[in-house]
Automatic annotation (TrEMBL):
<dbReference type="InterPro" id="IPR013783">
    <property type="entry name" value="Ig-like_fold"/>
</dbReference>
<protein>
    <submittedName>
        <fullName>Uncharacterized protein</fullName>
    </submittedName>
</protein>
């Protein structure tokens, strides 16, 4: 699939017994990875990758990273979009 002008990314994150402090979507294609901060809305973390047309065509890996109040970091399995 082609990447549209903007792409909404959603993730469900839970952490017991700590609470999750930061959730980010890491976008990777070659040597220029970048992070998008995700915001919690009704139990789901979300962000929008805007202006995707400014990026080169190709495959992009999206990895969700979550950090809890104890400093533990977890990375989800990544997905690839084109």
């Amino acid at each position: 699939a082609n990447i549209p002008y903007s792409l909404e990314i959603n993730a469900t994150v839970s952490d017991v017994p700590s609470s999750t402090l930061t959730v980010m979507a890491m976008i990777v294609n070659g040597s220029n990875p970048f992070d998008l901060v995700m915001t919690e809305i009704a139990g789901t973390y979300t962000c929008t990758w805007t202006n995707t047309s400014a990026y080169n065509p190709g495959f992009y890996n999206v990895t969700i990273r979550a950090q809890d109040e104890s400093g533990n970091v977890n990375q989800s399995e990544f997905i690839t979009i084109k």
